[in-house]
Design a protein that fits this description.
Elements lengths: L8 E7 L4 E7 L17 E3 L18 E3 L6 E4 L6 E4 L13 E3 L3 H4 L10 E7 L7 E5 L7 H12 L11 E5 H19 L4 E7 L3 E5 L6 E3 L7 H10 L6 H13 L9 H12 L6 E6 L15 H17 L3 E7 L6 H11 L3 E4 L4 H10 L18
Parallel strand pairs: 3-7, 8-11, 8-14, 14-15, 15-16
Antiparallel strand pairs: 1-2, 4-5, 5-6, 9-10, 11-12, 12-13
Helix pairs in contact: 3-5, 3-9, 4-6, 6-7, 7-8
Length: 388
Amino acid sequence: MNFASEYVLSKNKTLSDTKETNVFQPDTNVISVTFDHLVDSNNTHAGEAILCSKCRAVLSTHSKITDLENDSKKQWICEFCNFENKIFVHKDEIPNQEEITYLLESNHQTLPTSPSSDSTYTVYCIDISGSMSISSLVNADLNLPTDQKRIERFRNVAGQDYNPRLSSRQRHITRLEAVQIAIDDNLNVLEKNSPAKKIGIVTFNQMVSVIGDGKINQLNIEGDSLESKNEIKTLAEQTPDLDCLSNCKNILKKKLLDLEEGGATALGPALYYSVMLASKKSGSQVILCTDGLANKGIGSLDNQNQDEIDKFYNDISELALSNGVSVSIITIEGTSCKLGLLGEISSKTGGLVNVVNPMHLKEQFSSILEDQIIATNVLAELILTKEL
């Protein structure tokens, strides 16, 4: 995480004899913090850190420790507040590196969850509006998991004897098919690495369809319900808990591959519902895949009141952030998806934003799943010297 951004340099005006110029001045009140050491166990200390009794600064490799006469304790004069601490400390407990990670609880409580016991939610929020039927020409000789469904559609039009050859050196693949292929592959990986994870699918076009884990009764949100946050919230709270992936992968994949495109884009209600559903378990994530602009229901960009639109998507950010849910956005390159609003949600919740070629969706979904959530609702305390 980097707090250093455009605020590192502040623009000050200086006047010269000839003209006014802008000179960038360094701002030293900028701190860059990285959390990669939280997943690196090579420099982990068991137990609690030694704190200053007055300001709670942590004993570090720069601290000066002296022996006290006729006393088993040692003296540490805090370099931040100059308080004279008397401490019991063994030589091995004194930090010898710049960065130390203290393990405050037992391993099974603080180390990253093992693959077999990760029961967080991953909710795929999938755009199935009409624009997802746009296809791309692919130079490849391949068979796709969506081929059988496509053949059935062909036969409904041309007759049952029609047998198209879909595998060839060149073929067209729709945006939705690219999404289906990517998620289908992800489910195989997740079943192997995180069989206890709970997977939900939410789709949206002119209505929002909650497929969930594939075993629950499908819920459709439509009509006036698309305009009501309270109704959507109630429906999400009433949704049964999802089953783990190992028990529902096959039926979930079948329903995934049965999806068809058509209709408008009720992105706002679908995203709100998805975040509400994922909020049942801290550390969960929502992956939104869309190629268009929200134009149906609450959060519609057709709304002329920009303040209402901004507030709605900001409320989603706050909801996700407060419940430890990350929201990642995948959109198709060359589309008109308004990434300003959606990207802000990802930025605030620690998700990713990717604009990709449809045929690279598999890799992008995988990269999001590999981006582990280490902790949520973390409080960082910064202690400075009196001079600062």
